[in-house]
Amino acid sequence: MAIDPLSPAISVRERYGDVVSNRWPVIVEPQHDEMLSSWLHRLAYANGVVPRAFARVLGLAPGMWSASLDLRLPGDIARQLCANTGVSPDQLSAMTLSHALPKQLLLPLRNSGRRDRSTWLQFCSQCLTEDSQPYFRRRWRLATRVSCTKHGCRLRDRCPCCRSRIAVFNGRRLLPQHRCARCSYDLRGASIITISPGAKWFDRCIDDICRPEALTSSPTGRALIRRLLSMPNLVGGYSAKILTSLSTAARTRCVEKLTCHLSDWLMDDEDIDFKERGYAILSSGNSGRIVEPLTAALTRKRGRPMTANHRQPAAANTELLKAYVQTSPGHRLTII
Ligand SMILES: [Zn+2]
Ligand SMILES: [Zn+2]
Fold first, then answer.
1. How remote is the CA of residue 179 from the centroid of ligand 2, in Å?
2. Which of 12, 112, 176, 189 is the most buried (most CB within 10 A)?
3. Phi and psi dihedrals of 199, rounded to 5?
4. CB-side exposure of 17: number of CA atoms within 13 Å?
């Protein structure tokens, strides 16, 4: 029989299922310090799946499914993600919150709905603006973080348009995660909130101290964490007694009250040129030397709640500042 030269050649090939991999069509690379939930939301969006439906892809119920995976990633889901994306188990593990962060200082997942209470996640609008693919950082989950290390502005924990928390996991529409899941507001457009130099200094100091894993395993480190958590009680005037319960705005006020006298001390020192001060005062090798004086500085004097009018530097704070200087030979303090 003659073969029509225009007809398509047909031959038996491998089964489709044998030649295509089980990789999802679009893969996104984890970014520096990215949270697992942020990466999952980007992955879902890139593959055209809304977040609530992506929970079903992973066999999970809706709700705060991705935020829960940040805290604990079950082995079967980790294996599925590795198989479907090609991301290594180590990369997945590095995105979870159990990796090198003090879990006691994490913001809780519960949502009280009150404006002065915490939400589970904070963000810096300038960081999101500068990202080629906007993503949420792991350190934005820490209650001790109130400012952005890079931009110096105060973090936000709510959509400035509808005041709701960041709830990408709940999204029923296909939106990039930098748009509010409730009102679609572009979080990159949020205005910049300034923060006092003293609070910024304290914020960075705590972030540096909390970096080494050794903090949570030493008695002095655990004592410091307890003191940090009790900061609202130390400062006074807050209905919530634990730092993780407060909104970013309330925690910032708390830190500003606490550090105003430290800030005064620094600002009053005319011998120091602030523009020339280097911030690199702490390194993982010597941060332990300031944990004790800092813990002492955060100890409440019975009957003497700290207020903004309390101008006299406490002896403990003087010791703390001495310790800073001692831990930074060749460096000077910077308030940026
Ligand atoms: Zn930033
Ligand atoms: Zn909104």
1. 8
2. 176
3. -65, -40
4. 0
CA distance 108 to 70: 12
The span from the CA of 329 to the CA of 332, in Å, is: 8
Q: How confident is the model at residue 160 (pLDDT cuts 50, 70, 90)?
A: very high
Residue type, 286: N
Q: Between vectors from CA 331 to CA 329 and to CA 335, what angle results, nearest 5°?
A: 140
Task: Choose the weakest-confidence range: 113-122, 273-282, 292-301, 315-324.
Answer: 273-282
82-101 pLDDT, tens digit per residue, is: 999 999 999 999 999 987 78
| pLDDT tens-digit series, residues 195-209 | 988 888 888 888 877
Q: Is pLDDT of 211 > 80? A: no
CA of 32 from ligand 1 middle (Å) equals: 13
Nearest one of 243, 231, 205 to 336, comparing CA atoms: 205
CB-proximal residues (5 Å) to ion ligand 2: 159, 161-162, 180, 182-183, 185
φ and ψ at residue 317, rounded to 5 degrees: -70, -35
Q: How far, in Å, from the CA of 67 to the mean position of ligand 2? A: 19
Between the CA of 59 and the centroid of ligand 2 the distance, in Å, is 28
- Lookup: tokens for 270: 């005319």
Asked if 199 contacts 262 with a C-beta cutoff of 8 angstroms, the reply is: no
Global pTM reads: 0.79
- Which tens digits make up the pLDDT trace of 220-256? 888 888 989 998 988 888 877 899 999 999 999 999 8
End-to-end CA distance of the chain: 85
